Amino acid sequence: MTALTLSTAGAAGLRADALVIGVAKSPKGGKGLAVAPGAEAVDQAYDGRLADLLETLGASGAEGEVTKLPAPAGFKAPLVVAVGLGAQPDKDGEFDAEALRRAAGVAARALTGTKKAAFALPVADSAAIGAVAEGVLLGAYTFDAYKDSGPQAGGAAKDKNGKAPLAEAAILGGKPRDKAHKAALERATAVAEELNRARDLVNTPPNDLNPEAFAAVAQAAAKEHGIKVQVLDEKALAKGGYGGILGVGGGSASAPRLVKLTYKHSKAKKHLAFVGKGITYDSGGISLKPAGHNETMKCDMSGAAAVFAAVVAAARLGLEVNVTGWLALAENMPSGSAVRPGDVLRMYSGKTVEVLNTDAEGRLVLGDALWAASEEKPDAIVDVATLTGAMVLALGNRTFGVMANDDAFRSAIVEAAEEVGEESWPMPLPEHLRKGMDSPVADIANMGERMGGGLVAGLFLREFVGEGITWAHLDIAGPAFNEGGPFGYTPKGGTGSGVRTLVRLAELTAAGDLG
Fold it and tell me: Which residues are catalytic?
């Protein structure tokens, strides 16, 4: 990953290969663009005409825009990279943290192949420093493990053009001896490193990341960070009566796993449980997905990757909250031993489920994991899953839906997501949709009404949450995997959706600001 440092050096005097500055759109009614704080030295070196020069080059200050120009005489960095921040700062003169995060990510990606860059973006406080640091680390991400020049071939990770990610970034205006600034940098590093680990897992081909392999990754990380880990293999799952996980994984040559990660802090007063859907490949099973719908289904374990990353990040940050992560891992494949439409499964809770569609498998593995999490009576449970195409139709590719059995908790999650720059939207759980899952042969069916399918899935999951336990469901089917081009600090492929929201929930709970 890109090495980060804080520097009080001036923009002109720091030796680097490039100097990143910010520009914004002009205030309402104004013309041209505005040079953001941090770029004063560059502007002065151009006799106050930097904005005019950038406009001549076509810059407008729009979000995601990158304009490169030679550095003025006397600067040790030969290149200036002006990145668009979009809107003007707020009434207090500060730029939104997400605008800084995205701008830093765009610049880091634009500087692929560069050894060192100095970031002279507007950092008014430690929160801004954390945002820039996070943006750099997330924007510089690349996954090249399976290319000839990649890590598995003995080389450094490189992009599609054979260039290595930005090697080093110095954040100007950050004070190395300031406790708040150092803490912001350390937090950003921990969260970004674990989020990028989640991206790696999502991007790993399913022939290399089956349930057993995923469990091994979790075990190694748990050992490194002092997290207790328990892995239930197929024999333990059968003995325990985990019919949902076993049913989904029964058609695959790769047996399912249920991984429990336990992070505890001696001063913790609250306990959170995170539950992740981990379908390492989803063919749809007997209800086989058609061509065009299964090529990216390695990403169907994104929820488990997010939960795994969030638990490890909580441990690295030493948060004063107990966090348990449950990874429900299985591969959904068709075979003579696969679950069939019409089969009835007995779940870990004892409830029976009539399987009407084997491609509605995520709710089955989550049902078992939710009940297992409920047995520990946590203060709240949050599950994360690439659960339904219906949620993508409703909210698009960049926004995840949030459902809950408590409106205040749902609102708190949406607010936490917004705070860390993740787009989410509160969704209802309409009671009238529950009737559509009534079954003549079992307690419930795994399918209901077609319209509102994402909400139906949420209602199904609610059936497996222990009585009196606050619960929320994050359907990240849209933003978990980016099939388009990169934007902001988001790469093509696995995005790590949900990680930052979960970490923020843990931080708020540790601080006593969440329930």
Answer: 289, 363
Q: How far apart are CA 127 and CA 134, in angstroms?
A: 11
Q: Which residues contact 385 (CB under 8 A, 6 or more apart)?
A: 276, 277, 303, 362, 366, 473, 474, 475, 476, 477
Q: What is the dihedral of CA 88, 89, 90, 94, to 10 degrees?
A: 180
Residue 247 and residue 366 in contact, taking contact as beta carbons nearer than 8 Å: no
Length of the chain: 515
Phi, psi of 443 (to 5 degrees): -65, -30
The token pair at 155 is: 């080389």
Beta-carbon count within 10 A of 512 CB = 11
Instruction: Tell me the two tokens of residue 118.
Output: 């100095």
Give this prediction's pTM.
0.96
- H or E segment to which residue 279 belongs: strand 271-282
467 vs 120: CA distance, rounded Å: 52
Instruction: Return the SS3 of 220.
Output: helix
Judge contact between 405 and 462, C-beta under 8 A: yes
pLDDT tens, residue order, the chain (515 aa): 899 999 999 999 999 999 999 999 877 656 779 999 999 999 999 999 999 999 999 999 999 999 999 999 999 999 999 999 997 777 677 899 999 999 999 999 999 999 999 999 999 999 999 999 999 999 999 999 998 765 555 555 665 667 899 999 999 999 999 999 999 999 999 999 999 999 999 999 999 999 999 999 999 999 999 999 999 999 999 999 999 999 999 999 999 999 999 999 999 999 999 999 999 999 999 999 998 889 999 999 999 999 999 999 999 999 999 999 999 999 999 999 999 999 999 999 999 999 999 999 999 999 999 999 999 999 999 999 999 999 999 999 999 999 999 999 999 999 999 999 999 999 999 999 999 999 999 999 999 999 999 999 999 999 999 999 999 999 999 999 999 999 999 999 999 999 999 999 999 999 999 86
Percent helix, strand and coil across the chain, each to the nearest 5 = 35, 20, 45
In terms of Cα–Cα distance, which of 401, 375, 405, 427 is closest to 471?
405
CA geometry: angle at 264 spanning 420 and 237, to 5°? 95
Which helix or strand (DSSP H or E) is residue 425 part of?
strand 424-426
CA angle 19, 20, 22 (to 5 degrees): 140
Separation CA 142–CA 161 (nearest Å): 11
Contact 364, 248 (CB under 8 A): yes
CA torsion, ordered 159, 163, 165, 167, to nearest 10 deg? 170
Cα–Cα distance, 162 to 186 (Å, whole number): 30
Identity of the amino acid at 188: A
- Contact partners, residue 513, CB within 8 Å, separation at least 6: none
- At 476 the three-state DSSP class reads coil
| Number of other CB atoms surrounding residue 492 within 10 Å | 16
